[in-house]
Design a protein that fits this description.
By secondary structure, this protein is an alpha/beta fold. The protein folds into two domains: 2-55 and 316-427, Aspartate Aminotransferase, domain 1, CATH 3.90.1150.10; 69-313, Type I PLP-dependent aspartate aminotransferase-like (Major domain) (Aspartate Aminotransferase, domain 2, 3-Layer(aba) Sandwich). The protein is built from 13 helices and 15 strands. Strands 4-10-9-8-7-5-6 form a seven-stranded mixed β-sheet, sandwiched between helices. Strands 1-2-3-13 form a four-stranded mixed β-sheet. Helix 4 runs parallel beside helix 10 (298-313). Bound molecules: pyridoxal-5'-phosphate. The site of pyridoxal-5'-phosphate has 15 residues, from helix 5.
Length: 428
C-alpha cells in the first residue's frame, strides 16, 4: 500500500494535471476487457480508454506483432522518405477497408484513396483542415455546435464549445458553427467554404445521433457548392458503432476521413485519408508543406495492422452491432423500471453499436453514478460537453457474461443512489 500511496503522490507532483479530479486508478496491468490495479482490485473497462481498446487490452495478436517489429526496426527516417514495409502493409489494409466501405455505400469503388499517418486524432484533423484549404484555395470552414475535434489550435478552432475555445483565442478565423442535425441551416454553406467538418455521431456532446436526413443533406449541399466534406471518425471508426465506419449508416462518402484512437490497437496512431488527387496538394507548391517526424511509426503500424486484421477476422463491427442492441435494450429496460418506481432519473439511453450514452436529468446523479460504478469495479465516464451523460463504450470483444455483470452492477448502483435523498426523483 505504501508503494501505491507513493505513486499517487508522485503522479500529482511530477505529472501536469488535466483536472482536479483524476480517476486515479493505479494501474498494474490490463488484459481483455479488464484493468487490474496495484491495490489488487479489478475493473471492467466500459469506456475502452476512451474508444481505443476495441480489440481488448493487450490483444495477443497485437502484442506479438509489436514484439516482432521491435526486433526489426524502430524509427529510421521522417515520414515520406524511406520505404517501410510495415507502413505500406498498414496503408494498403486501411485504404482497402475504406474503399470497401465506400463501395458498400455507393456500389462502386470510384476513387483511389491514400493514407497520411499521424500520431493522434487532433493531428489528423489539423492535416485534414490544411489539406482542404490547400486543395480548394478557399479559407472558410463550417463546423457544428458541441463538436469535438481535438485540442491543438486548428482542431480547437472547429470545436463547437465556446468555453474551451475562449481562453485560447485568437484561433483560426473564418469559422462558422451551425446546429448539429439541423438540415435547414445547411443553406448557410456556400461557395466560400473550403470544407465542412463533422463527427457522424457527436461523442463529447453526449452521444448525439443526427436525424437520418442530416448527413445525406450535408453531402448534397457540399457537392452543390464545391466544399469538401471532412468526416471525423476518430471516435466512431473501426466498428465502434456497428459498422466499420459510421458514415455507412447513412450512405455518405466523405472527401476526407480522419481516424485515430482504436486504429493503433493500443499504440498511438491516427491519420487522414482522401482521394489521391486531393492528397497531391501536399506534395507540391511547395513540396514538403505538411511533414511529420513520427507519424506512421513502425511499431504503431505493426500494432494497427494486427488490430485491423483481428477486427476483420472476428467481425467486430457485427459483434458491436449485436452486443450494442442487447446492451441498449437492457439499459432502456433498467431506465424504465426505475422510472416506474420513481427511484432514478434516467432521461434517455441512446447511441449506435457500442457507442452509447445514458442521460440523467441531474448532473449530480451523473457524477454520483460514475463514482459509485468505479467503487464497484466498473469503469464508466462522462463526456466533455455535458455533465448529464454517462458514456458507455466497452471493448468490442466484450462477452455476454461481462455485459451481464456490468448490468447487474448498474442496477445495484442505481438502487444505492435512489436511497440518497438528494439524488432521488422525489426531491425535485
Ligand atoms: C471525434 C474526435 N476527434 C478528435 C479527437 C482528438 O483525438 P486525440 O485525443 O487523439 O488528439 C477526439 C478525442 O477524443 C475525438 O473524440
Amino acid at each position: 500500500m505504501l508503494e501505491v500511496e507513493r505513486l499517487k503522490q508522485k503522479f500529482l507532483r511530477y505529472l501536469s494535471q488535466t483536472s482536479d479530479e483524476p480517476i486515479g486508478i493505479v494501474v498494474d496491468r490490463s488484459e481483455g476487457c479488464w484493468i487490474y490495479s496495484k491495490e489488487g482490485k479489478r475493473y471492467l473497462d466500459f469506456i475502452s480508454g476512451i474508444a481505443v481498446t476495441n480489440i481488448g487490452h493487450r490483444n495477443p495478436k497485437v502484442v506479438q506483432a509489436i514484439k516482432r517489429q521491435v526486433d526489426r526496426y524502430l524509427h529510421t527516417m521522417v515520414y515520406g522518405e524511406f520505404v517501410q514495409d510495415v507502413q505500406i502493409a498498414l496503408a494498403e489494409k486501411l485504404v482497402t477497408l475504406v474503399q470497401e466501405a465506400c463501395k458498400r455505400v455507393s456500389g462502386k469503388i470510384e476513387w483511389e484513396w491514400q493514407y497520411y499517418p499521424t500520431n493522434s486524432g487532433t493531428e489528423a484533423n489539423e492535416g485534414a483542415l490544411k489539406l482542404a484549404r490547400k486543395f480548394t484555395g478557399r479559407k472558410k470552414f463550417i463546423a457544428f455546435k458541441n463538436s469535438f475535434h481535438g485540442d491543438t489550435f486548428g482542431s480547437l478552432s472547429v470545436t463547437g464549445r465556446e468555453v474551451y475555445r475562449h481562453p485560447f483565442e485568437p484561433l483560426l478565423s473564418e469559422i462558422e458553427f451551425l446546429p448539429f442535425g439541423d438540415v435547414k441551416s445547411l443553406k448557410n454553406i456556400n461557395e466560400s467554404v473550403a470544407a465542412v467538418i463533422t463527427e457522424p455521431i457527436q461523442g463529447e456532446a453526449g452521444i448525439i445521433v443526427p436525424p437520418d436526413d442530416f448527413l445525406p443533406s450535408l453531402r448534397k449541399r457540399c457537392d452543390e457548392v464545391g466544399a469538401l466534406l471532412i468526416l471525423d471518425e476518430v471516435q466512431t471508426g473501426f466498428g465502434r458503432t456497428g459498422e466499420w465506419f459510421a458514415f455507412e449508416h447513412w450512405g455518405v462518402v466523405p472527401d476526407i476521413l480522419t481516424v485515430g484512437k482504436a486504429l493503433g490497437g493500443g499504440m498511438p496512431l491516427g491519420g487522414f485519408l482522401a482521394r489521391r488527387e486531393i492528397m497531391r496538394a501536399f506534395a507540391e507548391n511547395p513540396p514538403l508543406c505538411h511533414v511529420t517526424t513520427f507519424g506512421g511509426h513502425p511499431i504503431s503500424c505493426a500494432s494497427a495492422l494486427a488490430a485491423l486484421n483481428f477486427t476483420e477476422e472476428e467481425n467486430l463491427p457485427q459483434r458491436a452491432k449485436i452486443m450494442g442492441v442487447k446492451l441498449k435494450e437492457a439499459l432502456k429496460k433498467i431506465a424504465e423500471d426505475y422510472r416506474v418506481k420513481g427511484m432514478s432519473e434516467i432521461e434517455d439511453v441512446r447511441g449506435k453499436g457500442l457507442m452509447l450514452g445514458i442521460e440523467f436529468s441531474k448532473k449530480e446523479t451523473t457524477k454520483a453514478f460514475v463514482k459509485s460504478c468505479l467503487e464497484k469495479g466498473l469503469i464508466v465516464g462522462g463526456t466533455l460537453h455535458t455533465e448529464k451523460v454517462v458514456r458507455i463504450a466497452p471493448p468490442l470483444v466484450i462477452n455476454e457474461e461481462e455485459i451481464d455483470w456490468a448490468l447487474e452492477t448498474i442496477v445495484e448502483v442505481l438502487k444505492g443512489l435512489s436511497r440518497k435523498p438528494n439524488l432521488s426523483l422525489s426531491s425535485q
